[in-house]
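Could you join me in thinking about how sequence relates to backbone shape in a protein? We need material for that, and I hope you will provide a protein of your own picking. Once you have written the record down, we can walk along the chain together:

…
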Amino acid sequence: MKPVKTKHYQILLDKIGATFKQHQKQAIAQIHSEKLQAYWSIGQHIVEYEQEGKIKAEYGKQLLIQLTKDLKLSLGKGFSRSNLYLMRQFYLKYPKIQTVSGKLSWSHFTELLSISDDLERSFYEQQIIIDKWSVRELKRQKKTALFHRLALSKDKEGILALAKKGHKIQTPDDLVKDPYIFEVRHGAIYLYT
């Protein structure tokens, strides 16, 4: 015998669905948090092993090559040399795990670790949190040099607004601006109008 689908039954279905989705979301967030903590700790173990009690260590590629072979055999995927290098960098760039934002994924951090300037990395990290950027959006904003454009701009609010919604072409003047000023710094070309 089929239950009658009443208004109360639909409310029950909605409550169960919402409860499940809420706890599923929390579980996924907890998994991401644990993954970040694990990768940070692995980086810490690598750095401490390399330093052998010294303040600074000579970074050895051979260690990561050997670790990759052994960890893949015992633990499976996820321990490529590049991933171990990133875990090491993660620990070095964020020496206090408490400073690591649980709002960012490991993919966000791997992208952030490619930024050598601490101020620039911190800027992008905050923008990810504020604007809820995906990794794809972070890459786009880095590629368009948002940090550098803001640093050089007199209209910081305007640049941030452009970063959020993009540049909408409404008139021919929006497409072609004059004069153009090109500047090449650190292998990047900057355009000022």
